[in-house]
Specification:
mainly alpha; membrane; 403 residues; transmembrane helix; NnrS family protein
Length: 403
């Protein structure tokens, strides 16, 4: 079965011109999928063989860094390079600047795969070039338009500083700094998912329901939205000062309640027939679940909740990335916003993988087996994604428009 059949759409009339660098989402949504399928099997090998990937720090820090600054950063780059032209009315990013940016991302992954065999100055030079290059591309249109999303530049800048702190930890073999840097980066992305998810999940849900002829009014709840964002930022601030403290647990419990309340008003139960929409709800649902598990672990010393971090990273981050990339790639290539059975299976496989990984401690002596099963389900999800979406991302729009 070919990719077009899997996606539920014939490719008979699709032009064959190579279009990978004609718009910002194309190379980075493809790279996010490729890296998801490369880095997790690599980590499973490292985990089972006890290999060392980076000088001076434990192997799991390589895994954490590459999931954030490799996989997630590629998806964030693709999203922003596509969203900023839409937000500002500026011309889309493509051509040589996009090729250069893609090469910078690839170079960063190469030096981290060879981290124990290259000098730290080279790791720093290559790795710390990518986010500033994105900022240089995004800043002119955002600043010219005085767009409300201009603070995204600040967020990217903070992520860069945190990455610089992680590289510094490699230089001095500082395990504590490396761990603190990764936790802060995760919390920053949690804020991003909270803000962006709060915009797109209800909006896309309402649009999908209206297309079906259902009249749905999603009431604006600005106070709740501000509270959710404020609590998520507060969790990040307290974690920075006193991670795993009583205050962190209390804030996590409050954030879990606020996120769940927010999600409950988005009519997720009405989207069961549309995988492209319910996947977004599942992705966002991992936020209250993650905060609840964190609170149980910190406040109640519930041992099986100790892997709450994976509810955020593998759950919220990866599921939202898969949901957004599959939707945006269709919309920005002139295709109907409908996914086929293969992608629905990918959503389910990833969700099952998250459940297994988050609850892996319940397996007891079979913990390593549970981790392998979770990684296998992750690979199934992203292999299906690449089979369906690699041709879509490489070929031109089906409607003949630029991009």
């Amino acid at each position: 079965m070919d990719a077009a059949t899997l996606s539920g759409r014939s490719s008979a009339c699709q032009p064959r011109r190579f279009a990978l660098f004609e718009y910002g989402f194309r190379p980075f949504f493809l790279l996010a999928g490729v890296y998801a399928l490369v880095s997790v099997p690599a980590w499973l090998w490292i985990y089972t063989h006890g290999a060392t990937m980076l000088p001076g720090v434990a192997p799991q820090f390589w895994h954490g860094h590459e999931m954030i600054y490799g996989f997630a950063a590629a998806a964030i780059a693709g999203f922003l390079l596509t969203a900023v032209p839409s937000w500002t009315g500026a011309r889309g990013f493509g051509g040589r600047p996009l090729i250069l940016l893609t090469l910078l991302w690839i170079a960063g992954r190469v030096v981290f795969f060879a981290g124990d065999r290259v000098p730290i100055w080279l790791i720093a030079l290559v790795e710390l070039s990518f986010l500033p290059a994105i900022m240089l591309m995004l800043a002119p249109p955002l600043l010219r338009a005085r767009n409300r999303n201009t603070p995204m530049l600040f967020v990217l800048g903070v992520l860069w500083l945190v990455d610089a702190a992680f590289v510094s930890a490699l230089r001095f073999g500082d395990q504590v700094l490396a761990q603190d840097a990764l936790h802060l980066a995760i919390n920053i992305i949690l804020v991003l998912v909270t803000v962006i998810g709060g915009r797109i999940v209800p909006s896309f849900t309402a649009n999908a329901l209206r297309r079906r002829g259902e009249t749905v009014e999603l009431a604006a709840r600005p106070l709740l939205d501000r509270t959710v964002i404020g609590l998520t930022i507060a969790v990040a601030a307290v974690d920075l000062a006193a991670r795993n403290s009583l205050a962190s647990g209390v804030l996590a419990a409050a954030a879990a309640i606020a996120h769940a309340w927010r999600l409950s008003g988005w009519y997720g139960h009405k989207t069961l027939r549309e995988p492209i929409v319910w996947a977004l709800h599942i992705g966002y649902a991992w936020l209250p679940i993650g905060f609840a598990l964190k609170a149980l672990w910190l406040l109640g010393d519930v041992s099986w909740a100790a892997l709450w971090l994976h509810a955020f990273t593998m759950g919220a981050f990866a599921t939202m990335i898969l949901a957004v990339t599959t939707r945006a790639s269709l919309g920005h290539t002139g295709r109907p916003l409908v996914v086929g059975r293969a992608i629905a299976i990918a959503y389910i496989a990833l969700t099952a993988g998250v459940v297994v990984r988050v609850l892996a401690l319940v397996a007891g002596d079979a913990y390593r087996y549970a981790v392998t099963v979770a990684g296998g389900l992750w690979c199934v999800a992203f292999a299906l994604y690449l089979i369906v979406y690699a041709p879509i991302l490489i070929r031109p729009r089906v409607d003949g428009k630029p991009g």
